[in-house]
Specification:
single chain; 129 residues; alpha+beta; five-stranded antiparallel beta sheet; 3 helices; 33% strand
């Protein structure tokens, strides 16, 4: 089958497993092709490797469940940011390179008591009060 035309678009999706509550995001390169016979087909790639369509039968990497909610990109990361404890301000007397190194270390070091979040954590910001 000879290929005549191809266009590539980039899309990202957020996923939440309804079985275990695991959430993740993934970016895809979606290649739209038309073969020599005029038939259209699509190829999904994630991290440079060909993968099945995330919209057809997604499965949870954590528990293998197939009841997965697909959302627009940013939903999972925004909830994860809300769940992070606020960073303590740096003392005013520190400065220069030491202050910058402490700020970088604070970002890279996970907070003590950080927990694996669940589906209820993901949905909490959207719950009506």
């Amino acid at each position: 089958m000879s290929e005549i035309a191809a266009t590539t678009v980039h899309e990202a999706y957020a996923f939440a497993c309804m079985r275990c509550g695991h959430g993740w995001e993934q970016a895809y390169q979606i290649e739209h092709h038309v073969d020599g016979s005029g038939n259209a087909f699509v190829v999904y790639k994630a991290d440079g490797e060909r993968v099945p369509s995330p919209l057809s039968t997604p499965s949870c990497a954590n528990c293998g469940g197939h009841v997965v909610r697909i959302m627009r990109a940013g939903r999972v990361s925004s909830v994860q940011q809300l769940l992070r404890p606020p960073q303590a301000p740096l003392p005013p007397e520190s400065g220069g390179e030491a202050e910058e190194e402490m700020a970088v270390a604070a970002v890279r070091t996970p907070a003590p008591g950080a927990h694996h979040w669940h589906l209820s954590d993901l949905l909490r910001p959207f719950h009506r009060r």
